[in-house]
Amino acid sequence: MQFGIFTVGDVTPDPTDGRTPSEHERIKAMVAIALKAEEVGLDVFATGEHHNPPFVPSSPTTMLGYIAARTEKLILSTSTTLITTNDPVKIAEDYAMLQHLADGRVDLMLGRGNTGPVYPWFGQDIRQGINLAKENYTLLRRLWREDVVDWEGTFRTPLQSFTSTPRPLDGVPPFVWHGSIRSPEIAEQAAFYGDGFFHNNIFWPADHTRRMVQLYRRRFAHHGHGRPEDAVVGLGGQVFMRKNSQDAVREFRPYFDNAPVYGHGPSMEDFTEQTPLTVGSPQQVIERTLSFRESVGDYQRQLFLMDHAGLPLKTVLEQLDILGEEVVPVLRREFAKGRPAGVPEAPTHASLRAVREVSAA
């Protein structure tokens, strides 16, 4: 099972002192966080993609390419790549290039994002969001798997005898997670292709997450990719920790209360009760995260959001120390207990290449 972190790259004032980092500071902080993730033994660093303030990660492959050059083991991913407003040809080229530079340590999560105005900025219609996701991904898959592509669809100009370059490393395209919070059509898309399904459940109750993942698992089996438990599932989560839970609650409260995404809404107590947000001791985080398996079954990837809402870099790095030293080692051990032998591991470039070699033999 893989453990890691994801960032949305928000530039948010620190509510305790009113200071807002510059875009330069925030970008550099994201890099420092990724490097710290590898240092403390995490498996994955994922960055979002946004094209509007207060967010800065408009070019994920630029950032991930830089991080690739400064890391050795960390899997580099996205959370998410906008399949609806990016040209699938450019996605195919950019992520294949990143895959080569990172020696295969790359996968990506595809999604529609949560910013409605991004559609007209890139010449698209939000009312076609699901159809764009379906058609663009169909083309992306072909570009990675066929050396020469002829294509005619609804949303982009036709392609005639087109070859995307560079070709995927070792002939193995990056593994794709389809990210969705509420759209069964995306769970169906992931299941149809036998890809991964990532439910970023940071704002949703466990029952909703359970229903979405169960739908994906049933459809995965329906489309002939194996048993429901063979499906590849990832989850999101949010945590803030201190040795004493009272200290964690006291320190995080001003950040929660003023966060752009949920500040001035439900109380932190209500939010932690109804969603995966856990504010407390490392042991509380361990127990809460282990409970996710009760809703979705054995799964492959757990990512945490830890650097949002104006939290200063020093605090985030302290959180990563706690996560890497006290939480993830226990989670690895406990999730392994009782895990059926047939449950697949999280896909990597090496494992996908091995499958390809066996199929070609």
TrEMBL record:
It comes from Streptomyces flavochromogenes. InterPro entries: Bact_Lucif_Oxidored, LLM_FMN-dep_put, Luciferase-like_dom, Luciferase-like_sf. Keywords: Monooxygenase, Oxidoreductase. The keyword tRNA-binding does not apply. Gene3D superfamilies: Luciferase-like domain. This is LLM class flavin-dependent oxidoreductase. Its EC number is 1.-.-.-. GO terms for molecular function: oxidoreductase activity. Residues 1-297 form the Luciferase-like domain. Transmembrane segments: none annotated. It holds the Pfam family Bac_luciferase.
